[in-house]
C-alpha cells in the first residue's frame, strides 16, 4: 500500500481538528464560572485532560505541516532532477 505524505498529513489534521473540537466542547461544559470555582462541583482535575488533548492536537497539526513541507520538498527535488 502506497500512502502519500499529503494523505497522511490531511488525515492527521482531520484527527487533530476532531480531537480539539471534542476537547473544547468538554472545557466549555465544565462549571468554571467565577461563582462556581469554590463550589463542591468544581474539580480542577477535570480540565487537565481536555487541555492536554488540545496540546496534543496542536502537536499533531505541527507534525502534519512538517509532512506537507517534506512532501513539497520531495516533489520539488523530483522536478529538479527531471529538468
Q: What does the overall shape look like?
A: rod-shaped
Number of spatially distinct domains: 1
Total helical elements: 2
**Percentage of residues in strands:** under 5%
Topology, number of strands: 0
Radius of gyration: 20 Å
Structural class: mainly alpha
Distance between the amino and carboxyl termini:
29 Å
Low-confidence stretches: none
State the share of residues found in helices, binned by percent.
over 70%
- Average residue pLDDT: 84
Listing every helix as H and every strand as E from the N terminus to the C terminus, the arrangement reads: HH
Main sheet specs: none
Oligomer: single chain
Topology record:
Elements: H1 5-29, H2 48-82
What do these coordinates show?
Helix content is 72%, strand content 0%. It starts with a helix and ends with a helix. It has one domain (5-82). The protein has helices spanning 5-29, 48-82. It is mainly α and 83 residues long.
How would you concisely characterize the structure shown here?
This protein has two helices and no strands.
Amino acid at each position: 500500500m502506497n500512502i502519500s505524505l499529503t494523505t497522511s498529513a490531511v488525515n492527521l489534521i482531520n484527527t487533530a481538528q476532531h480531537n480539539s473540537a471534542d476537547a473544547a466542547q468538554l472545557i466549555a461544559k465544565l462549571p468554571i464560572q467565577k461563582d462556581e470555582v469554590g463550589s463542591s462541583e468544581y474539580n480542577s482535575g477535570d480540565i487537565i485532560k481536555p487541555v492536554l488533548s488540545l496540546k496534543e492536537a496542536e502537536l499533531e497539526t505541527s507534525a502534519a505541516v512538517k509532512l506537507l513541507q517534506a512532501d513539497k520538498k520531495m516533489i520539488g527535488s523530483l522536478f529538479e532532477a527531471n529538468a
